[in-house]
Structures are given as structure tokens and as C-alpha cells.
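Follow-up to my earlier ticket, as requested here are the two runs.
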Amino acid sequence: MIIEVLKSKIHRARVTQAELNYVGSITIDEDLMDAANIIANEKVQIVNNNNGERFETYVIKGERGTGTVCLNGAAARLVQVGDIIIVMSYAYMEMDEARKYEPLSVFPDVNNKLIK
């Protein structure tokens, strides 16, 4: 049996921009993407800790080292700049692999920089 499990997450990132007039997606600083093992165009689930919204979109690479976390298109209506979000990616795995798998969690600081 194949099941879907949490692959990785960026926990408590701060929204830096919301661009309504853009083709939908989330733009994420490439440093955060690499740390969380998330790639461009990957489907992700977003949870907004400030208002409880939960939605899915796909990832666009943001400029490395900028701390950018920008919701684009319709998703921009579900956040405010400064909101705290969790970005989660999932993977399909065989049950035996899933039982052993440890999701990767990234905890950025208040400026969306990696905590070293």
C-alpha cells in the first residue's frame, strides 16, 4: 500500500509579500527551499496561523538570502503581510518506508533566515 505522508515543512515563516495580480503560487527564498528539500513547482499546503486558512498551491523560487515568502494570485487574499504560516510538502511512500521516515522541519527566524 502507498500512503501520503509529511515530507518536510517550513515552520512559522513570516509572510513578506502578498501579490494579488500575479499567476498563483508561493514564492519562497531558495535557501529555505533547499533546507526543507522543497523544489520549484512542488505542490505544498499552506496553513496560516493568524487566521486558520488552509490551502494548496505550488512553489516558485525566490531570490536566495532575501527571506522572501510571498503569496501570489488568489492565495494573496488568504494572508496579510506579517502573518505566520507553515509550508508543508508531502510524498507518497510504501507503508514500510513511511513508518521509518522522519520529516524534515525547518524553523526560520523572524526574518525568514535559517537558524544555524
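Run two:
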Amino acid sequence: MLEGADRSGLPGGLVATDWTWDARVGAWRADAIVYAAVVERLRRSGCNVEDRVPQWEPIRWPRADLLELRAEQREAVDAWRRTGRGCVVMPTGTGKTEVALAIMASAAASTLVVAPVRDLMYQWHRRILQRLGYDAGIIGDSAFRVRPVSVTTYDSAYIHMERLGDRFGLVVFDECHHLPGPLRRDAARMSAAPMRLGLTATPQRSDGRQVDLDWLVGPIVFDMPLAKARGKTLADYEVIRIPIHLAPEEQARYENLSRQVRAFVAERRRDQPGYAWEDLCAETGKTPQARRAMKAFHAKKAIEDRAQEKLRVLEDLFRLHAAEPCLVFTGSNAMARDVSRRFLIPCLLSHCGKKERIEVLEGLERGDYPALVCNRVLDEGVDLPEVKVAIVLGGTASGRQAKQRLGRVLRKSRKARAVLYEIVSTDTTEEHRSRRRRDSDAFDRTRRRRF
């Protein structure tokens, strides 16, 4: 809020489009995100300013037990320090967290770390305690313990940022590709923090909103391609695509359901030529015909996800890698449970509690479990035990999800080579999704193999 200026104009060359006149209090208002730019303009113009916004404070870390940074990590830190704002793009497993901790240590300011899920929030809490000796506050998961250095989730951040926006001089957005969503962006928009750091391996979004990261956090200041890390910082790897066929009865039902969906859409397009997926979703609550079409669509996708041949190939792959821990990624919770029951391995889904997840991951690390199956819960960010075999049974068309899943097995250890298998149902829309998610330099040498 800018007091002392009347409605006739803004002082100090401030940009009028950033401001709104609030007749209730007779003052100008702007989003907190413009705070740093506003202060800079006012000071340059010579205005006499009393700044009552910042409630953040300097931090004295109990210790700084940081790992020695590699050359590319030091380059990322130096690039960010030049402006104090911006995104660092590095492949999964190359040490983005260590980059952030080094920046936090040198900034020595009140810091809020924002993570996409609770697991990552607690992981950040452990890392800060381990490396900087600071017991950070926790905002989220039914806790609201705010300290000068705190960790939170995106959902908690945008809900509480109206109370937190003036308390942190540095905000770290982990997996910052989540930030430009229509609600989560408020976590950045309502924060006055002049220093902002975004971390991600995959900034691209299917809706194109990654361009908003420039003003929400700052431009990309460091971008490390996967090819630069492959075989050096990260393990060398290969991607093997295994096509499978639906069983005759599965294929017959799949084609019948496809015809139902196509017939409904074709009928609607006679009256509405631009009828699209969004229109079908909106109509499902209004007409029984749309509901039947939507049920047919989901039943069709379930056949792709849960094809019986996938389980047979998965069994062969388990035999091939009998002495190695494996990660299995599915396209649905139902398929994850199918795999868990069939092979008697743990299944991690989004509703699993923190204690259960820790026990399962530690069991995989100890060798108690030969494999672990999940849907999306381990797609990004979470530190995993050393695993060099990943098997993808399904997923979205997102290239970001594909690269994140590949990154789960790329942490380098000795000279071990990683491998990612992708099992795809042929003559289905899953083939199209597979092609789209492999449209990346990370998958440019994919091999095809039959089992």
C-alpha cells in the first residue's frame, strides 16, 4: 500500500498498470510481487520513503556443513547471485538442492522453501537441519509453525501467503514448474520477497504458462542440458521400448468403447463443430449421454493401463533383473494395486502416510523389498535409494513426467548403467501418448525390443 500520494498520479515513475486506487482507505495498492521494483524506482527518483513492508531478518546459521560444489553447481550459484532472482534448470540428480542450500547460506536472510508435496517439504526440513543446523518451521500437513526459515507446500503457501508475504526475504520454489497454475501463482504474487529462486529439471508446461515464471520468479539464469550430465554427473543409461498387444477380448472391448466415444463426439460436432474434450467434461454433469461417453472413455483407458500382457512382460523383466532393485511406474492407482498384489511388492500412492513411505523406501534401500510400484507419488523430487532399473507401464503424454521418471534412476554410483523400460499397448491411444512423452533429447536413442 502506497500512502502519501493522491489519486491524481503516482510518484517516482511508478508504472500505473501495477496499481489500483483503493477508495476505502484513500491509497494506492499493488501486488506484493512488485515491491522490490517499486522501492528501487522510488529511491532512484529521490522520493523520501518510509518502508514498513519488510519483516524479514538476517539469519545466523548454527553451522554450514555444505558439500563441495561441482563446477556446474558453482556456475549455477554465481549466475543466480548476479541478479538475486531467477530459475535454475538442472536434470534430476545433478544436485539442485545443494545449489539452493549454498544460496541460502550466502544470502543469510529469512527464507521460505516451497515444495509441491508433503514428502518434499519434510525432505527439505531434514536437509536444512543436516546442512545448516537450523530446525525450520513447517507450514502445512496440519501444522502452522512459522520460523524465520520455514518450509511449506504450494497449496499451503498460496492459502497463507497473505499472512506470510512480508516475513521472508528469499523464497525458494522447488519444482517451480508447478508455480504458474491459476491458484498456486498467488504464492509468488502475494510475496514481497526481493530474492527468488526457482528449481526445476523440466520448466515446460502443457498449457504454455512456463513463460509466467519470468515475472513470478525470474528468468532462467542457468540451464544445464541432460546431454552435458549424461555419463558424467549422472549415470549413463538406455531407454528400451517394449510394444505389447491387447488380448483378443481386451481388443474387442477396447474397439467397442472407442466407437461409443467417437459416435458421441461426432453427433455433438454436427451442431457444435468445435466440440472438444473440455466440452465433454463440462457436459457430463448435465446429460446421461455425455456421462455414458465419459464412462466409456475411462473404461477404454483402463484397458490400456491394465493390459494383462503388461504383467507378463513385467514378470520377465523382474527375472532379468532379479538381483537389482526396480521401480515400477503405472498410469493408474488400480494398475499399481494389480502389480502389488500379483508380485507381492509394496505399493506407494498419494494417500499413503509419511511413516509408511519412509518405511517402504528404507526397506527398498536395505534390500527387504526387491521392487516398489507407484503411480505418480515418486515422479519428482523425492530422494530415492540407489536404483538403476525403472519400468514404465503407463502414464500421461507429458514429456516432463517422462523425464522426471527417467531421472529417478540416473544418480551416479560407480560405473553402473541405468535402464528404463517403457511397455506400451500397440493399436491404442497409449502409442500416441508414448510418442509425445518421448519427444525430448533425453529419449533420442530409444531402442525397441520385444519380450
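The only thing I checked on run two: The chain has a mean pLDDT of 90. Let me know what else you need.
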